[in-house]
Amino acid sequence: MALTKINIAELSLNPFDLIGKQWLLVSAGDEHKWNTMTASWGGVGVIWGKPAATCYIRRSRYTKEFVDNAEYFTLTFLQNGHRDALNRMGTKSGREIDKMHDSGLTPVFVEGQPTFAEAALVLVCQKRCVSDITPESILHTETLERWYAEPDYHTMYIGEIVAAYQG
Q1: Is the pLDDT of residue 9 over 80?
Q2: 15 neighbors 44 (Cβ within 8 angstroms)
Q3: Does the structure show a pLDDT above 90 at 128?
Q4: What one-character DSSP code corresponds to residue 17?
Q5: pLDDT surpasses 80 at 38
Q6: Is residue 14 classed as helix, strand or coil in its secondary structure?
Q7: CB-based contacts of 87: which residues, under 8 Å, 6+ apart?
Q8: What are the start-end ranges of the E strands in the chain?
Q9: Computed from CA positions of residues 104, 39, 160, 10, in that sequence, does the dihedral angle turn out positive or negative?
Q10: What is the pLDDT of residues 56-66, one digit of tens each?
Q11: Rounded to whole angstroms, how far apart are CA atoms 59 and 65?
């Protein structure tokens, strides 16, 4: 199935279901070298008058190096039936295996950015803001205890959604 460019402003979606329950893939890099990871944290909306998405990546993740070094990243929401691939992408490191090809998914590029042919929705995001989450910025100790027992904090990325594709 081919990916078709759409107008993101005409799309209706439930971010709580799409991100929190179905999960997504965060990818960055180029056709020579790129990486992807599963995420279940993020958001979509309007920031600075533009359609935008946020994603959060722990400092230890290999994909973070690619997002940090790129101007763009993609958020890919897969069609139903790919939970095994999402689990693999979330538990195996691209430092150790070629998970983009070993996942059973088909890597493709849109707008020069990595994604997968099995996508239901792809958001191509241009980085607009990068902010580290620190222990001092977290206001509730239960959040620190639950999510940061190991001090592997997240970096928040805000990206302007510059293109969207549906599968």
Answers
A1: yes
A2: yes
A3: yes
A4: I
A5: yes
A6: coil
A7: 38
A8: 4-6, 24-29, 34-39, 42-47, 50-58, 72-78, 107-110, 113-116, 119-132, 154-166
A9: positive
A10: 999 999 999 99
A11: 9
> Residue 88 has which token pair?
């693999």
3-state secondary structure of 131: strand
User: Residue 58's closest CA among 159, 140, 157?
Assistant: 157
Residue 110 tokens read as 């849109």
Region 25-45 average pLDDT: 94
CA gap 66, 73 in Å, rounded: 9
Cβ contact 160:4 at 8 Å: no
- The pLDDT confidence band at residue 46, using thresholds 50, 70 and 90, is very high
Ranges of H-type helices in the chain = 15, 62-69, 83-91, 99-102, 141-147
